[in-house]
# Entry
Amino acid sequence: MAITRQAFGPEGWPVARFGFGCGGVGGLMVRGAPADQERAVARALEARVNYFDTAVQYGNGASEENLGRVLRALTPRDALVGTKVRIPSAEFGDIAGAIARSLDGSLRRLQREQVDIFYLHNEITLAGGGEDLSVRQVLEEVVPAFRALQAAGKFRLPAISAVGETAALHQVLEAGFFGAAQVIYNLLNPTAGAAVPPGFPAQDFGRLLDRCQAARIGTVGIRVLAGGALSGTSARHPVASAAPAPMGSGHSYDEDLARAARLRPLVEEGFAASLPEAAIRFALSHPGLGCVLVGTASPEELEDALAAIARGPLPPEALARIAQLSEGLAAG
# Structure
């Protein structure tokens, strides 16, 4: 079973449609056993997965350290690594310095001289405030800092995590500097890729995937399983985090679980063998989504995700059924 690759970003990098998430929600690369971490990464590489996504925030650097150790041991030929900077508001007075210090720490933990994708991980809003960055701060302070570090050879492709106010995200991406974006796209919130009925209970991302596709901005789908709400169970794996706060979907994790339960007909009617399979294949169905990022808690969960990817996008009749169920979500 080999994962297909497609052109990603302005330079058309060949990137697998499946990305290996190293975050704290799944938890394998933060709290998993070292042997399981190495086994999972080796299995992903065997399946031609070539994008690995981490951040200093995942386990306070543990994810970066573990990914760096495993990749150094396995010495893959074409692995791409993405990491992130989240600037604390206490350092908003020195945004360039904060970004440089964060990236240097990430490179040290990853045991690399350069990362392939470097993301701004703060939420972006029109006016900023709190821990959020304003559009002005991003374009006038973050972009020059990123540009200098890119010119110094410390990363290849500048990117953002597309979280915050929809209008602000569109403005930042339309400015033309960032070549990749992590975009929330899942069964509970497909608004980055499709129109939804009035009253749909989620943030409307305004078909952000379409904008990115038109501008040749590489896209990585995040929260594909809605932090576990689309896992088909309320139980959490021992390695996984506690239930996370929703991103772009409901007001609480329990609300997301309840909405996910209303999607069970996808399994009951034979469109997928499980809800997580349906969720992964749903994300894979959008042609504007370059890479579907899935975090796991164990090598076994990775195998399940790889099997879902191998089955390919959902067929049109499944997508039509999802549209019907989505109308029910809006009504309820």
